């Protein structure tokens, strides 16, 4: 079969020229999903190219994705990334991946043994917000999470990322090996600190002596990661086949923009990712907050309201001036004032750049995809800024409308009466609340009382209940599009 590995590629495809032979699997990555392929894997590949370094990645999927791992192996672990700008497409080949594992294909012990190999210096993660098994509002380990309960009962055969990291570190300690850095690349506020807290709490429950060792030896840098990488579609794969002249089932398409700000806190080595545009800084938190509130917050607004208004993609919402203005207003009037940025940061320029990125007509980013897992995303995207406005006594109607949009969306029925496929770890509970009330604003206080999404100081605040109820009622009476029109003209 013709694959990316055995077939000469057209000259316009950017291919690394360094030799793969010297690469070592010094990074083990958990979560070989869309984002990692277009971000960390490509950064690492380009770093090897520029620096002559030997950073190889062992890719692991813990939940699902067996077919992708098999496909990756069939093409010697190379894959393509299409950068799709508004005015053209550029294909890149990534060859920094050295090997791959999956507990279902290779057994859990192969995964743990790999992580315990002496050359491993970094274990990185893109396991989605829910993969950390934390209470989204507090950022603390949720010991009632069924996956965590199962791992706590059977810590030698863990299934969660947290359980696997602790077990692998235990093996390293027993073998007299040093620790690795644990680097989260998920959209969670203070992702390093949250991962550290969850790992330590889990460790103290299964092996108290490990808690101390991890605290003393492992580092958990925070990262701000950014590149819009929509889930792959049949059209994307067809375009990749057309460009490469052969199929690449592991290929992915994304926007040309990328950003990566990393806390420079690595216990062993790390690639010089800064040689290809990443930034190492002492404190990532302001950048994380900026990105989560302005980008991800406006994304969630556009996802819920846009889906309800009948827009399939983010770029479609940008064709509607009311939506474009509402996204900009949300960023500049609701989110930007809540941020404390280093001097010289131009948040208006950042907001305008985000609108340009969203408008890219060649990137088909579904509102449905972003709407997924809202219960895990709302706290870091809307909760912090909402708290800020409550303290200031300032207007937060854009945030209230986003939350009302989410409440209307999780009812599972759209404005035309068609079913919405709501994908969320809390979907059953959310649906039950919605069904009990019907389309009635009486559901607002009950949904706001879910403390894992809305801590009591937010969810029980009368001003929040009133503003979200008003926006929800408007969605019922006038629909999402008219609600957005009125939001920008009021
Ligand atoms: P994806 O659906 O393509 O991949 C999800 C990955 O997470 C898969 O490898 C899957 O095996 C793993 N996973 C899912 N649930 C898990 C669990 N409970 N435990 C362990 N692993 C689990 O999604 P994609 O696009 O790769 O995004 C993943 C995450 O990356 C996002 O949730 C976000 O935090 C971050 N991210 C994504 C961006 C994007 O535009 N796609 C951009 C910036 C960050
Ligand atoms: C999106 C993000 O799916 C979502 O929730 O908001 O994945 C977004 O595309 C990225 O964070 C951009 O860096």
Automatic annotation (TrEMBL):
- Keyword Chloroplast part of the UniProt annotation: no
Highest taxon of the source? Bacteria
Question: InterPro entries given for it?
Answer: 6-PGluconate_DH-like_C_sf, 6PGD_dom2, Mannitol_DH, Mannitol_DH/Oxidoreductase, Mannitol_DH_C, Mannitol_DH_CS, Mannitol_DH_N, NAD(P)-bd_dom_sf
Under PROSITE patterns, the record lists: MANNITOL_DHGENASE
State the Pfam families in the record: Mannitol_dh (PF01232), Mannitol_dh_C (PF08125)
Q: Which UniProt keywords apply?
A: NAD, Oxidoreductase
Q: Is NAD one of the keywords UniProt gives this record?
A: yes
The chain positions of domain Mannitol dehydrogenase C-terminal read: 283-475
Instruction: Tell me the protein's name.
Output: Fructuronate reductase
Domain Mannitol dehydrogenase N-terminal: start-end pairs? 26-274
List the SUPFAM superfamilies hit by this protein, alphabetically.
6-phosphogluconate dehydrogenase C-terminal domain-like (SSF48179), NAD(P)-binding Rossmann-fold domains (SSF51735)
């Amino acid at each position: 079969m013709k694959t990316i590995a055995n077939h000469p590629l057209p000259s316009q495809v950017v291919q690394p020229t360094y030799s793969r032979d010297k690469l070592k699997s010094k990074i083990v990555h958990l979560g070989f999903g869309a984002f990692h392929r277009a971000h960390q894997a490509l950064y690492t590949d380009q770093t090897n190219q520029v620096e002559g370094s030997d950073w190889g990645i062992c890719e692991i999927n813990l939940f699902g994705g067996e077919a992708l791992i098999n496909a990756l192996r069939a093409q010697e672990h190379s894959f393509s990334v299409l950068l799709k700008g508004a005015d053209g497409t550029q294909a890149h080949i990534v060859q920094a991946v050295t090997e791959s594992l999956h507990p279902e294909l290779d057994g859990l012990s192969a995964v743990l043994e790999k992580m315990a190999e002496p050359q491993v210096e970094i274990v990185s993660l893109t396991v989605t917000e829910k993969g950390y098994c934390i209470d989204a509002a507090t950022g603390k380990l949720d010991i009632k999470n069924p996956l965590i309960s199962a791992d706590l009962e059977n810590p030698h055969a863990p299934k969660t990322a947290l359980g696997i990291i602790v077990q692998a570190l235990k093996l390293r300690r027993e073998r007299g090996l040093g620790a690795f850095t644990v680097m989260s690349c998920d959209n969670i506020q203070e992702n390093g600190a949250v991962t550290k807290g969850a790992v330590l709490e889990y460790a103290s429950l299964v092996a108290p002596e490990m808690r101390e060792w991890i605290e003393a030896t492992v580092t958990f840098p925070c990262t701000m990661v950014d590149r819009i990488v929509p889930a792959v579609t049949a059209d994307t794969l067809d375009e990749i086949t057309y460009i490469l002249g052969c199929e690449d089932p592991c290929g992915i398409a994304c926007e040309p923009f990328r950003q990566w700000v990393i806390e420079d806190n690595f216990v062993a080595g790390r690639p010089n990712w800064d040689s290809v545009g990443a930034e190492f800084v002492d404190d990532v938190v302001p950048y994380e907050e900026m990105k989560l509130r302005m980008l991800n917050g406006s994304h969630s607004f556009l996802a819920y309201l846009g889906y309800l208004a009948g827009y399939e993609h983010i770029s479609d919402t940008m064709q509607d001036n009311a939506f474009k203005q509402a996204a900009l207003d949300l960023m500049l009037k609701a989110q930007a004032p809540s941020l404390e940025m280093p001097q010289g940061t131009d948040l208006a320029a950042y907001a305008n750049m985000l609108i340009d990125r969203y408008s890219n007509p060649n990137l088909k980013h579904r509102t449905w995809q972003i709407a997924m897992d809202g219960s895990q995303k709302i706290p870091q995207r809307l909760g912090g800024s909402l708290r800020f406005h409550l303290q200031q006594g300032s207007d937060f109607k854009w945030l209230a409308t986003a939350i009302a949009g989410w409440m209307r969306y999780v009812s599972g029925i759209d404005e035309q009466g068609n079913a919405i496929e709501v994908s969320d770890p809390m979907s059953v509970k959310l649906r039950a609340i919605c069904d009990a009330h019907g389309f009635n604003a009486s559901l607002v206080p009950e949904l706001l009382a879910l403390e894992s999404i809305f801590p009591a100081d937010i969810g029980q605040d009368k001003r929040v209940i009133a503003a979200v109820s008003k926006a929800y009622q408007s969605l019922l009476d006038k629909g999402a599009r008219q609600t957005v029109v009125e939001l920008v003209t009021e």
